[in-house]
Amino acid sequence: MKFKTTLTQLTLKYLAVCGLAVAASQAFAQAETPAKGVLWEVKSEKNTAYLFGSIHLAKASFYPLPEAVESAYKQADTLVVEVDTTDAKAAEKAMPFFTYAAPDKLENHIKKTTWESLQSMVGPAAAQFQNLKPTVVATALSIGVFRQQGYDASKGVDLHYILRAKQDKKEIVELESTAFQAGVLGGLPDEDADAMLAQTLDGLKSGDTLRETAGMISAWKSGDVEGLAKILQDAANKDAGSKKLMKLLLDDRNQGMTKKILGLQEQGKKLFIVVGAGHLSGANSIIELLEKQGLEVKQIK
């Protein structure tokens, strides 16, 4: 699976439900255990911030999160997130990045084999995807796997803290914008977008997607940063296309987010930073980039 992190929220209305996903997700369902998550302490000369890896679709059973996470949130005057997913106006403005204007359609932008694979998976429902770009369809299908296992965006960790921060009158700062994220996902060239959709369909059919998502969630819940990094690295190393997409969706964005985090650190704000867990593990992660800038970074276990 390509770890799509925060680019998923904008496509929830296009979730696909198909028999294959239902049957397979039941087979891979896991027993519920408390969620630990991945929390980091980040020290600069001016202050100490806390960086928490998010799962964007979660379950009510994940809460309450560990006391260390709660304490990190409570000490902060500023919540830092990738985007404020409660901003409906921003999401609405971003939708044109995800759709084709009639008479253009999905089938015109993907290979015949990819279109036939989609049809074989969802049947007549494939027609409902014709106005959507390939990356949106791929993301929606992947989210559908989570949804069939009981994971819900309304229980997502970042949304959980956004809603709390608004109630607690904390400042909320975005590391990116909804329009920027939409441009990344919706702006892929046809060749790359087709590859993403084709690989997603193959992963759903083979069961690889279910195994990888189950592994990622298990690693996150247990605080296993190394395990999470390995899953992501294995996904990126499948082929040249996967490596290219991983660089675009994770590595390239990590540079910009790290730069903004450093700026906020310089301002002396008390920060609780929540970003997709995939951005915090492995080579070129935000953690590694912060360390290269001389900050003291330590995982709180």
Q: What is shown here, in short?
A:
This protein has 301 residues and is an alpha/beta fold. It has helices spanning 19-27, 67-75, 88-94, 112-122, 134-148, 157-167, 178-186, 190-206, 208-222, 225-236, 240-266, 286-292; strands at residues 39-43, 48-54, 78-81, 171-174, 271-276, 296-300.
Notes on the protein architecture:
The structure is a single chain. The protein is an alpha/beta fold and about 300 residues long. It contains twelve helices and six strands. The chain has helices spanning about 20-25, 65-75, 90-95, 110-120, 135-150, 155-165, 180-185, 190-205, 210-220, 225-235, 240-265, 285-290; strands spanning about 40-45, 50-55, 80, 170-175, 270-275, 295-300. Strands 4-3-5-2-1-6 form a six-stranded mixed sheet, sandwiched between helices. Helix 1 crosses helix 5 and helix 4 (about 110-120) runs parallel beside helix 8. Residues about 1-30 have low confidence and may be disordered.
Order of helices and strands: HEEHEHHHHEHHHHHEHE
If strands are numbered along the chain, what order do they take across the biggest sheet? 4-3-5-2-1-6
* Oligomer type: single chain
Biggest sheet architecture: 6 strands, mixed
Overall radius of gyration = 19 Å
How many E-type strands? Answer: 6
Uncertain ranges: 1-30
Average pLDDT works out at 85
Number of alpha- plus pi-helical segments:
12
Q: Can you tell me the overall shape?
A: globular
Structural class determined from secondary elements: alpha/beta
Strand content: 5-15%
Helix content: 40-55%
End-to-end gap: 27 Å
